[in-house]
Amino acid sequence: MVLPADQATTEADDRSAIAAVLRLLVRPADRATTEADDRSAIAAALRPLVQPADQATIEADDGAAIAAVLRSLVRPADQATIEADDGAAIAAVLRSLVRPADQTRYRSPQRRSSSFFPEASMAFLDDYLARTPRSRALFERATGSLPGGSTRTTVYSAPYPPYAANGTGLAFTDVDGNVYRDFLGNYTSLILGHAHPAVVAAVEAQVRRGSAFGAPTATEVELAEEIRRRVPSIEHLRFTSSGTEATMFAIRAARAFTGRPLIARFDHSYHGTHDLVMAGTPGVPDAIGGLIVDLPWGDPDEIAASLSRREGELAAIIVEPVQGAGGVRAPEPGFLESLRTLCDRLGGLLIFDEIISFRIAPGGAQEVFGVRPDLTTLGKIIAGGYPLAAFGGRADVMAIFDARRDRAVSHGGTFNGNPVAAAAGLATLRELTPDVYEGLAALGARLSARLAGHIASAGLEARIVNVGSLFQVFRGEAGTAFAPGAGQPSELFLGLLLEGFYLAPRGMGAIPTVATEQDVDDLADAIARVLRTMSLAEAPTLVAQRS
Questions:
Q1: Fewest CB atoms within 10 Å of the CB: 192, 227, 486, 526?
Q2: Catalytic residue check, 374
Q3: pTM across the whole model
Q4: What is the mean pLDDT of the chain?
């Protein structure tokens, strides 16, 4: 039996609450099938709870049959109280079926959690810990050699991330055997999904020919030509091993070409982790901060004002035409055009960081929005899941790297243009036809519309935005991206892991070509369920704050 104070969580005729409790009673793999207002799913969840001989009696939408089975699960003295289609009686019986260990998962609205984490976090956290013991052991082992348990800050999430074992198509499996439909794709880079046959074949063939040389290869030339074909503004380009290097060398090119020191960037931007774009963080000298200026997004007048006293110093403005870490933020009409005009007027270069946004069209965001930058940085999808990135643009600017010239800007890197990564990238781009991009955009719009409908019908304080196949889920009145603090679990992330989906802890995702309409619908429904659970758990705190 549950505590009287906890019984109020299961409301008399609230099928959402009934479904929520049923999810505790069935196997984790079956939880996602229990929909809030679907008697078919309620009946399906009840069947495993009774004797095999009784399972056939539960009809999909037959309240009398559901009630009959419930009567078989409780004490004889209580059986007569369950009427055939009486939500109050069904709810009362469900309360008696929940295990004591699970009773604290759904508390009364009159009670307030004393835990450091919200109650939804605690429920998600308990389930996550129970299903990932091997990931936990690997994390604890990793912390003995790797600070924070990994070599990539963005993959850490409290209490520890699931450790991947293998992936194929849309899904990957962790070391505990849990399977996740992956709508992050290594932070947007796996646009074809995991282990795509064309990419695997290209990589295997190249590895057999050799994995690296102290000499250029035909494969890197072919990849460069394919990129130039897709992006007219890139007249010449060079390869690097990471997006951080790509933005670093694009900025260096702008400074060398203009002879000026100042770089401007935008609030909530992300351009890698080299010193200039990490100014103001630990380990970066204060003097670096004087070489970069932060600009407000979407406000041409304020942008001009911010640069007014340093116009003659401006080497470049670097901008993500669609912000990634900033919440999949698309530019307002005329915004990118205003930057083009401003750079032309001031004599600075305009750099588009398209490392993420290049996946929204064959020619990237610059094709979609019709603005031509001087330089562009690329990464993620151009490498097909391998470490390779690029920067390029105007031929006169990129000529400063021509080793045949006196005083050429040095650009080295042991794995620049690596033939294995180049082969993977070339195979990936060849799969990405205009029709494929249109299909991805349609799936993005479908996800956004379906989840927005759930949010509106449930009255949740949340929203979703998408640009092509990129999307971001926001929560709260302010509509900011999820960004859990150090050591604090992301409720959305943990909740979706339990639902069998993988997104970024901050709520960002990317749809790969292997996803179907059903996959996208399932994701929207799962996000809605997690958001509802979070909203119900936070209700006591909100009531207390407003009273």
A1: 486
A2: no
A3: 0.78
A4: 84
